[in-house]
Design a protein that fits this description.
This protein is mainly alpha-helical and 74 residues long. Helices cover 68% and strands 0% of the residues. The relative contact order is 0.24.
């Protein structure tokens, strides 16, 4: 898969995932919502680290600024 998540988008995903991990770790949300919080945090963390979002790919969204230069370096 090609990278389709831009620099600021990745940063926001990483910050949100860390916040959700903290919320889930201290059990702010009860029961199954805690499990859902862990799952969402994991998804945000993985898409932020690798820069690939399958949902963006399915919708044809690419938030990278310099798409042509990034594709030319491959």
């Amino acid at each position: 898969m090609k990278r389709n998540v831009g620099y600021y988008d990745r940063g926001l995903r990483l910050v949100l995932s860390i916040g959700l991990i903290v919320i889930a770790a201290v059990h702010v949300v009860p029961g199954y919502w805690n499990l859902i919080t862990w799952c969402v945090a994991g998804i945000l963390l993985l898409t932020g680290v690798f820069g690939i979002c399958p949902l963006y790919g399915a919708c044809g969204i690419d938030t990278r600024k310099d798409k042509q230069a990034a594709d030319a370096h491959k």
